[in-house]
Design goal:
It is built from two helices and 17 strands. The chain starts with 5 loop residues before the first strand and ends with a helix. Strands 3, 4, 6, 7, 9, 10, 12, 15, 16 and 17 form a ten-stranded mixed sheet that branches. Strands 2-1-5-8-11-13-14 form a seven-stranded mixed sheet, with no helix packed on it. It is mainly beta and 242 residues long. It is globular, with a radius of gyration of 18 Å. A hairpin with a 6-residue loop joins strand 3 and strand 4.
Length: 242
């Protein structure tokens, strides 16, 4: 039996004194390999590369990103994160902190729950007053060949907690996939295999969603919105979220 893995990565972005953003800390371990690439508009751009298959059941991964006052950071990923079966659930903790007059654009590729897997994901976001955020989260239940052979999808238990200037802005939890009660019923995914959301704070709201199972919600405060969507697959979901 393969031993469970514990790994973490950390990104720190700070103003470079020349109108751009430096990355004084950029470290990774195990499957989490953050790499700097060319940024735009004064923002640093980090791509998280999966350097090995993970998370497997039993693994514990952690990723933190800190954007100091006045800095700007974009984080993407090179490919989808595939949750794989193993002895027990895998755990993935994400901590994002955005300082005053700072900006974070968080848009990795989807998390995919392969058949037989269970991923417990908790994302905590802390925003200072004046921080700006664009946070996209996409989850896909099952890989294509899971669907074609009629296998049950994996399971994702996900919680998103957001605080702004010390006050709770959003705290929600979802439990989707094989073993989660009622996940595929009409009140939840209604037969869809993909779901996601786009959270914006300090930005103009996104345009109203087009045709499809999506809703744009206004959160407390004058400039915070949450666009949620469900779709048959990852491509259709991306079109709804933009």
């Amino acid at each position: 039996m393969t031993a469970a893995l514990t790994a973490q990565a950390r990104i720190v972005a700070a103003p470079d004194g020349r109108g751009g953003t430096a990355l004084p800390v950029l470290s990774g371990g195990g499957p989490l390999a953050p790499r700097r690439t060319r940024g735009t508009g004064g923002a640093a751009h980090v791509v998280v590369v999966g350097s090995m298959a993970a998370p497997l059941g039993g693994d514990r991964l952690a990723l933190t990103a800190e954007v100091a006052d006045g800095a700007a950071l974009t984080v993407t990923s090179a490919a989808a994160t595939i949750s794989l079966p193993g002895p027990g659930p895998a755990h993935y903790a994400v901590e994002l902190t955005v300082g005053a007059d700072a900006r974070l654009d968080w848009r990795p590729e989807p998390v995919v729950a392969a058949s037989g897997s269970h991923l417990v994901l908790h994302t905590r976001i802390t925003l200072a007053a004046g921080a700006r955020l664009r946070y996209r989260e996409e989850q896909v239940l099952g890989r294509h060949h899971d669907w074609t052979r009629g296998a049950a999808p994996g399971r994702i238990t996900s919680r998103l907690t957001v605080r702004r200037a010390g006050r709770l802005l959003l705290d929600q939890q979802t439990d989707l996939g094989a073993g989660a009660p009622g996940w595929d019923g009409p009140a939840v995914l209604g037969g869809h295999h993909a779901t996601g959301q786009l959270l914006t704070v300090g930005h103009p709201p996104p345009p109203p969603p087009g045709p499809g199972d999506a809703a744009l919600l206004t959160l407390p405060g004058p400039d915070a919105t949450l666009l949620t969507a469900a779709a048959p697959d990852a491509l259709a979901l991306r079109r709804l979220l933009g």
